[in-house]
Write a structure and sequence with these properties.
Blueprint (H helix, E strand, L loop, with lengths): L1 H6 L1 H12 L3 H12 L9 H6 L4 E6 L3 H13 L3 E6 L6 H4 L1 H16 L19
Parallel strand pairs: 1-2
């Protein structure tokens, strides 16, 4: 979360204080009871393909562990869109709140007015330019 620290040292300190205030026991139980047992996103490929809800994926281009999973989800969730925020890490909503909020608002607006459509094979792999 170094990107957050660089962009907003005061916000980072508040984030760190909040995070540190979590119960150590609760955090350990969550890790052991949830995070160790959940499948990786890559194991959920078939389930992702069946999702029919509009989906917005937002990642920071410096959130290295999340880049490949986000691209994987974009490729397998039919109604997914992907936003990549430059020079940002894992805490995008805190690092770049204006960009994050704009992306979410644009997504919700597109869904509401019926402009969020599933991926079309015609839009990838060359599309019009390959004809």
């Amino acid at each position: 979360r170094i990107q957050f620290l660089r962009k907003d040292p005061k916000g980072w300190e508040e984030f760190l204080e909040e995070f540190a205030s979590h119960s150590a026991t609760g955090s350990a139980l969550t890790f052991r009871g949830v995070q160790l047992k959940r499948p990786t996103i890559f194991a959920l490929e078939e389930k992702l393909k069946r999702l029919q809800v509009p989906t917005l994926l937002i990642i920071g281009d410096e959130d290295e562990p999340c880049i490949e999973p986000a691209i994987f989800m974009k490729r397998h969730i039919p109604n997914a869109g992907l936003v990549v925020i430059p020079k940002s890490g894992h805490t995008i909503n805190l690092e770049e709140p204006d960009l994050f909020n704009r992306a979410v608002l644009d997504f919700l607006t597109a869904v509401e007015i019926g402009r969020w459509e599933p991926f079309s094979a015609e839009s990838g792999h060359g599309g019009l330019l390959s004809r």
